[in-house]
Design goal:
- This protein is α/β, with parallel strands linked by helices and 169 residues long.
- It contains seven helices and seven strands, in the order βαβααβαβαββαβα.
- β5 and β6 form a beta hairpin.
- α2 crosses α3.
- The longest helix has 20 residues.
């Protein structure tokens, strides 16, 4: 079976990690969760550009290795820039892997309510996001282009059956 690379577009709090977890569970794909990997590399992350560069170089290398082994990958992070999505598409193409782009179109007020402030994540660490950070991220988000064939999912109330049907998994 051809490996797949699942990529995500969406605001913080849109439901990317919930969706990624369901995809990994249903398909057996390896779940590369950027937030968890950041905390493994940097116990007290600063989210600087330099730190992110190290993190994404590692995640891209891991993705490359897994795809080269014929394994599917759920790359759980925001691919909110077309150029980043294209970089991963090219990597997938070099391994004859199919790219599945999932666009979580959760209304911004709901996503913001989930993301802003201090809350405990499922990965066991506390994350802090200000409204300014949320607004900065969402202001720069580049929606998928028509030729990217993104699968849109409203993450308002995510259910496994909804994801299963939308992605045909």
């Amino acid at each position: 079976m051809q490996p797949r690379l699942y990529l995500f577009v969406g605001a913080p709090g849109a439901g990317k990690t919930t969706t990624a977890t369901i995809i990994a569970k249903r398909t057996g794909a390896v779940h590369l969760w950027a937030d968890v990997e950041r905390h493994k590399l940097f116990p007290r992350p600063s989210h600087t550009e330099a730190e992110s560069k190290v993190l994404y170089q590692k995640l891209n290398n891991d993705t490359n290795q897994l795809l080269s082994e014929g394994k599917s990958v759920v790359f759980d992070t925001n691919f909110n820039f077309y150029s980043d999505r294209q970089l991963l598409r090219n990597l997938a193409q070099s391994h004859n892997a199919e790219v599945v782009l999932v666009w979580l179109t959760t209304p911004l007020n709901i996503a913001k309510g989930r993301a802003v402030g201090t809350h405990q994540q499922r990965n066991g660490y506390t994350i802090h996001m200000s409204e300014d950070q949320f607004n900065a991220i969402t202001a720069k988000l580049e929606p998928p282009r028509p030729d990217e064939h993104a699968i849109q999912i409203d993450g308002t109330k995510l259910k496994e059956e909804q994801i299963k049907q939308a992605l045909r998994i």
